[in-house]
Amino acid sequence: MSYYRYSYLSGFGSEFSSEDPRRPNALPEGQNSPQRCPYGLYAEQLSGSAFTAPRHDNKRSWLYRIRPSVVHKPFKRVNIAKYLTHKWDEAEQTPNQSRWRPFDIPSDEQVDFVSGLHTVCGAGDPRARHGIAIHVFLCNTSMDNSAFYSSDGDLLIVPQQGVLNITTEFGKMVVSPNEIAVIQLGMRFAVGVDGPTRGYILEVFDGHFKLPDLGPIGANGLANPRDFLTPVAHYEDKEKPGFKILNKYQGALFEAEQDHSPFDVVAWHGNYVPYKYDLSKFMVINSVSFDHCDPSIFTVLTCPSTKPGVAIADFVIFPPRWSVQENTFRPPYYHRNCMSEFMGLILGSYEAKEGGFLPGGASLHSMMTPHGPDTQCFENASKAKLEPQKIAVGTQAFMFESSLSMAITKWGLETCQKLDAKYFECWQGLPKLFSDKINI
Questions:
Q1: Pfam families of this UniProt entry (predicted)?
Q2: pLDDT tens track, the chain, 440 positions
């Protein structure tokens, strides 16, 4: 068995270049598309933005490959992921708080990453290039003789159980729980797993993820650019009869066959790349005086809308950190939000709901639906001795927050049978504490 040593390039939004060391000088000198490329390669541009986008937003990479990606047979619609959908009107919606117990990983049949995609909720339409979809992946076997890409949006992948070995056109990367990967629009990839595997995906139709502006925080903090890693070029020159290219297009899956591996890129350069990030490297900002800060201080990545300061989607985490506020109710405050909040738990227990919110499960608090700490959390935090405390140790919760009002799919409401009908009960024990006395 051959052993591959994973290597990466460091930086976010950078201009990278990489070539497989087995073919030195594969990158053309001084131009993108020479009459004849080194080693008989084909030059192919992958555009992630309009040609005329402002330079700071212009995304593209040049790939130098053994065969151009156009060498495939026609696409045909397939139904190998029957719960992958953008049919937001297929089930009647309510504004109720929703919580799912951990989603089941299949054990009675072999299911790979693509066939294990299940859409939980979302909004918008990829045909209009506006909206999001939130999926979970539930699988137990590696993709075999196939590759996948989305023509609808960027995929932010959050593994919760099991390690993902992701092969892309740009190279290979390994992504473990407490790490994330972003595979951008149009990039082909395959996922290898070793046993039961589960995780979450945020798909954005509008644009690409960016680092949030830091404002008065300064030049450093939150997710630092140098901690984002992009794989280096690694090609395979393999004839593979019946190889399947799977394309998510306008919310449906299509399949085309070709007789070779698509992972035949010998060299590449550009700023439109897949990448990974280790959530443990996040530099936490928090209050050191009083009050609970807004969760926006925990934003790792954001996909902005056209409205200043408003996101199509934010990816937010709640990592281990020190809590030192004085005279403060330290857990998250009670809240009604003009945004939709989808939360998941990678590991540990979330401070505001240590009981029913479990790793591999999820919750959705829809636009303007009240939410906050459960009864037990409120009682404990209201009486706790306010000493410096390291919180969320061994825990990683996250939130996909969106300005869009999301609908839950029929699978999320009914078919998965994981919706907790008693979720509302966690707040019913909150007592009336109103008194004639100003201090109680």
A1: HgmA_C, HgmA_N
A2: 355 789 999 999 999 999 999 999 999 999 999 999 999 999 999 999 999 999 999 999 999 999 999 999 999 999 999 999 999 999 999 999 999 999 999 999 999 999 999 999 999 999 999 999 999 999 999 999 999 999 999 999 999 999 999 999 999 999 999 999 999 999 999 999 999 999 999 999 999 999 999 999 999 999 999 999 999 999 999 999 999 999 999 999 999 999 999 999 999 999 999 999 999 999 999 999 999 999 999 999 999 999 999 999 999 999 999 999 999 999 999 999 999 999 999 999 887 566 678 999 999 999 999 999 999 999 999 999 999 999 999 999 999 999 999 999 999 999 999 999 999 999 999 999 999 998 76
Task: Tell me how crowded residue 351 is: count the other CB atoms within 10 A of its CB.
Answer: 19
Torsion of CA 351, 365, 414, 141, to 10 degrees: -60
Could you give the 3-state DSSP secondary structure of residue 393? coil
- Contacts of residue 202, Cβ cutoff 8 Å, sequence gap at least 6: 132, 134, 155, 156, 158, 313, 315, 400
Q: How far apart are CA 282 and CA 210, in angstroms?
A: 15
Binding residues: 335, 341, 350, 371
Q: Phi and psi dihedrals of 100, rounded to 5?
A: -110, 135
**Residue 344, helix vs strand vs coil:** strand
292 is catalytic: yes
**342 burial class (0-12, 13-18, 19+ CB within 10 angstroms)?**
buried
Element counts in the chain: helices (H) and strands (E): 2, 28
Which residues are part of a known binding site for Fe cation? Answer: 335, 341, 371
For every residue of 184-247, DSSP letters joined together read -TT--EEEE-SS-EEEEEEEESSS--BPPP-GGG-SS-BS-GGGEEEEPP-----EEEEEEEEE
Contact 121, 131 (CB under 8 A): no
For strands 117-125 and 389-391, give the pairing.
unpaired
Gap between the Cα atoms of 428 and 8, Å rounded: 50
Which residue in 56, 72, 130, 292 is the catalytic one? 292
Question: 238 Cβ partners below 8 Å, 6+ apart?
Answer: 260, 261, 264
What digits encode the pLDDT tens for the residues 98-140? 999 999 999 999 999 999 999 999 999 999 999 999 999 999 9
H or E element, residue 10: strand 8-10
Q: Which residues contact 300 (CB under 8 A, 6 or more apart)?
A: 180, 222, 223, 277, 279, 282, 315, 316, 317
